[in-house]
Specification:
This protein is an alpha+beta fold. The protein folds into 6 domains: 120 residues, no CATH class; 95 residues, Alpha-Beta Plaits; 132 residues, Nucleotidyltransferase, domain 5 (2-Layer Sandwich), CATH 3.30.420.10; 62 residues; 28 residues; 109 residues. Helices cover 47% and strands 23% of the residues. Strands 4, 5, 8, 9, 10, 11 and 12 form a 7-stranded mixed beta sheet that branches. A 6-stranded mixed beta sheet has the order 23-22-21-20-25-24. Strand 2 and strand 3 form a beta hairpin. It is elongated and about 160 Å long.
Length: 647
């Protein structure tokens, strides 16, 4: 394949050859979409290109174009030989396809590229990686609706969850390694993505693609370009701390052992391979950090794959704690979303936990630079070795590196190894031995100092524990004193209230004794129940008593008759209701309480003595207004009763 850009629009020349180099197809002026359609029509094994970036201007767009090609097609850049870019004419000359360096027409270039790819020249740019993606998702987006629509959504989510569970069980039975990401919702899952670390062929017969009315399952291999921009060699080997926030959206943060933030990014459905692609260019991870106390399964697998330690905080980090950490590094980098924030907070938290130890290493090895690689010592300390053991490892590496001297021969491009003089070895070894002995002496001194400090620390802990117990007892007694003081205050207030009531009672008794007030029995309503309750408290109703009724609207004739039999003096009331006729017929005066000075208590009412005088006056009025008895009616009733008795 060869490209051209007439008028700025990319056009391609294409030649397809069969076995033995026979011509199968040729075409010129093809658009990219036409080229892709022809690839799907003929399904060749390889696609030879002069420059892969003729397909797209950058790697992101290139990945998109490559993903649209047939699954098993291998894209080969024929001009990339052993990591070196050559002119296609030079490659063709080496392959015996070209004798001179004259310029080739696009169609001839395309034909040459096809023949070179068939002959095994060049480097693979796009190949099927040993990974397969399985996607489970809803087929239809639910529309707005009522309860039935909500039930439908829950049913679809339940189906997606059931399908994802079946896939997990199938992968576990087959013993395949995979990463699992899902998006949860009410009633089930919105979607699920599995990245299986196995080729597509391993899943044949194990997981089938599905496209039902409600959800679908898609299985596809992972494609990617291998033309990645390489990082400097020293960067690729330095130890780094990687913070991860795994999930459907994965956050990644990379921090070096000096606390510098090297990179922060995030992406959807990033599997372990994609994460490794990102972090490997910045160094070798020695710590994988998360923001939760229990690391996810993906993190465990990635750490085991890299041989790195896992850092987890003592408890799940709060949003406030993450924000405080981010504030510390915000001048250097600003996370774009919560996933990047969580990853960066985890990585920096891991660095903070190791900061003092790393700074101690810098201080102790200050005199040994550049003979000893500090990062090498830090790496081994992080992995659990003591300072002495880590230093020994670094010294061994320094000795190994010092035994090889690389020298170039005149006129040759490739270096060859040359054995150094023995005296150089001896001087280097003696120098390193002296350094080692000095360091071992310093280590012994430090270990002795550590033991002394540990002894002091234990004594201090005991003192602190004793003080803490004493402080706890003191605090307990203080709480007890506060409770008692509160109780005393409550008792004092209650006493003052009772004393006030007692004093008020004395005043009322004096008033009653002087005759300035008279007592009336208080009833809420004029009913037999109210009378009975009052008699249980104050005793039976006596002749000449005053009765105070709060509400005369509620009465019983039986209660009125009882008052009549007791010959009560009068009924006084606050009610605005018209006095009941039975009271008037019983010749019981009814007076308005509001007309007199009075004090209302619980079961009694104290009122002005004038109430008695007015009651007498009211009774006389009632007697005057009482109609004379009907003598003739009485005689008739008497005669009727006698006749009944005789009969």
């Amino acid at each position: 394949m060869e490209s051209g850009f007439p008028g700025g629009s990319p056009r391609y020349s294409m030649v397809i050859v069969g076995s033995g180099g026979s011509l199968v197809y040729k075409g010129e002026g093809l658009t990219l979409s036409r080229l892709l359609r022809i690839l799907w029509d003929y399904r060749p094994d390889k696609l030879g290109v002069d420059n892969v970036f003729e397909l797209a201007e950058d790697e992101r767009r290139l990945l998109k174009v490559l993903s649209l090609m047939p699954p098993r097609l291998e894209v080969v850049q024929v001009t990339l030989i052993d990591g070196v870019f050559l002119d296609i004419r030079e490659v063709a000359r080496r392959a015996g396809l070209l004798e001179d360096y004259s310029k080739m027409a696009p169609l001839k270039t395309a034909h040459t590229a096809a023949l070179l790819a068939c002959s095994g020249y060049g480097s693979s740019v796009r190949a099927v990686e040993e990974r397969t993606v399985v996607q489970v998702s809803r087929l239809r987006s639910p529309s707005s609706g009522g309860w039935s629509q909500q039930r439908y959504q829950r049913r679809v989510r339940a189906l997606v969850q059931s399908a994802a569970l079946s896939i997990r069980e199938a992968l576990d039975r087959a013993g395949l390694d995979y990463d699992y990401f899902y998006r949860e919702s009410k009633g089930g899952l919105e979607s699920a993505v599995f990245t299986v670390y196995a080729p597509l062929s391993s899943l044949e017969g194990l997981i089938e693609e599905v496209e039902g009315p409600d959800y679908m399952v898609r299985v596809k291999p992972v494609y990617r370009s291998k033309l990645l921009i390489a990082k400097p060699q020293d960067a690729a080997s330095r130890p780094i701390i990687v913070g991860l926030d795994p999930g459907a959206n994965t956050g990644i943060a990379i921090v070096d052992l000096e606390g510098r933030v090297l990179h922060v990014t995030s992406g959807r459905n990033l599997d372990r391979g994609s994460i490794l692609d990102i972090v490997s260019g910045y160094g070798k991870p020695v710590i994988i950090a998360v923001d939760v106390s229990e690391p996810p399964e993906t993190v465990r697998k990635l750490a085991a794959q890299l041989g790195a330690s896992i850092y987890t905080p003592p408890r799940d980090m709060s949003i406030l704690e993450k924000r405080d950490i981010i504030e510390e590094v915000i001048g250097r980098v600003k996370p774009e979303n919560s996933h990047e924030r969580d990853a960066l907070a985890a990585a920096y938290k891991a660095y903070i936990s190791m900061k003092n130890k790393l700074q101690q290493i810098d201080s102790q090895l200050e005199d040994l630079e550049p003979a000893i690689d500090k990062d090498e010592v830090k790496k081994w300390v992080i992995r659990g070795l003591t300072m002495a053991e880590a230093l020994e490892k670094a010294l061994e590496k320094a000795l190994e590196e010092s035994t090889t001297i690389v020298k170039r021969e005149p006129g040759r491009g490739k270096p060859r190894k040359e054995a150094p003089q023995i005296s150089e070895y001896v001087r280097e070894i003696e120098f390193l031995k002296a350094q080692r002995e000095a360091l071992e002496a310093k280590i012994r001194t430090l270990e002795e100092s550590i033991r002394e400090w540990e002894k002091k620390f234990r004594e201090l802990q005991q003192n602190i524990r004793a003080e803490a117990l004493r402080d706890a007892e003191i605090e307990k007694l203080r709480n007890r004193v506060r409770d008692l003081e509160k109780l005393i205050e409550e008792q004092r207030l209650e006493k003052e209230s009772l004393m006030g009531k007692l004093e008020e009672s004395h005043k009322l008794l004096k008033t009653l004794a002087k005759g300035e007030l008279v007592a009336a029995r208080r009833l809420k309503t004029l009913t037999t129940k109210a009378l009975k309750k009052s008699e249980e408290t104050l005793g039976p109703i006596k002749q000449g008593e005053l009765i105070h009724v709060d509400n005369l609207g509620i009465f019983e004739e039986e209660a009125v008759n009882k008052l009549k039999q007791a010959s009560v003096k009068a009924v006084i009331t606050e009610s605005t209701e018209t006095p009941p006729a039975p009271l008037r017929n019983a010749m019981i005066p009814v007076l308005k309480l509001g007309n007199y000075k009075h004090i209302i208590l619980e079961d009694l009412t104290l009122t002005d003595p004038k109430t008695i005088e007015d009651a007498e006056e009211e009774r006389r009025k009632l007697e005057k207004e009482r109609p004379p008895p009907d003598i003739e009616k009485i005689i008739k009733e008497y005669r009727a009763k006698r006749m009944l008795r005789r009969a």
